[in-house]
Amino acid sequence: MNDPFARLPEVPAFTVTSTSVKHGEVLPAAQMSGLFGVPGGQDASPQLSWSGAPEGTKSYAVTMYDPDAPTGSGFWHWAVAGIPATVTSLPEGAGDEAGSGLPESAYQLPTDAGAARFVGAAPPAGHGPHRYFITVHALDVEDIGVPPTATPAFLGFNFLGHILGRATLVATAETPAS
């Protein structure tokens, strides 16, 4: 089913929860994209809390990815790097244009929409349900060494030698055909 982690090395899982998004359920309007014209969409990054990361974790990265986007390469909605190991939660809306809810050392990378911020879901009308993988990646380095202008795919590539664990929740969204 086009699992974005299927061909990556297996790593221990830890726990991520959200007061905004529930695993296996439909994304709320707040996490849909007003920027892409979804009625009620607010482009608000979800609240996230995580625990149980592997020993040796020195930083985290957070991503949201839609493998079902009709692009041939999916669609990156959010990518944040540089979250210190002492931080284990982000408030809803942390991924606004200024990254106002992110820790000082954290930075957002440009999404596939070209914006260095959270861009909510906006599946094409009639395309069917899309899955949104919201993932916290535990890393063994404080600085992953990826510039803020890099793509989320490049960030993910650089996880290969540094990932200790991964915590994922998956939500869905669908836009009915007109």
From TrEMBL:
* GO MF term set: protein kinase inhibitor activity
UniProt entry tagged with the keyword Disulfide bond: no
Give the matching CDD domains.
PEBP_bact_arch
Q: Which InterPro entries match?
A: PEBP (IPR008914), PEBP-like_sf (IPR036610), YbhB_YbcL/LppC-like (IPR005247)
Q: Which SUPFAM superfamilies is this protein grouped with?
A: PEBP-like
Mind listing the UniProt keywords for this protein, alphabetically? Protein kinase inhibitor
By its UniProt entry, which Pfam families does this protein fall under?
PBP (PF01161)
Q: Which domain of life is it from?
A: Bacteria
The record's similarity note reads: Belongs to the UPF0098 family.
Sorted alphabetically, which PANTHER family does this protein's record hold? PEBP (PHOSPHATIDYLETHANOLAMINE-BINDING PROTEIN) FAMILY PROTEIN (PTHR30289:SF1), UNCHARACTERIZED PROTEIN YBCL-RELATED (PTHR30289)
* Name of the featured protein: YbhB/YbcL family Raf kinase inhibitor-like protein
What is the originating organism of this protein? Answer: Paractinoplanes hotanensis
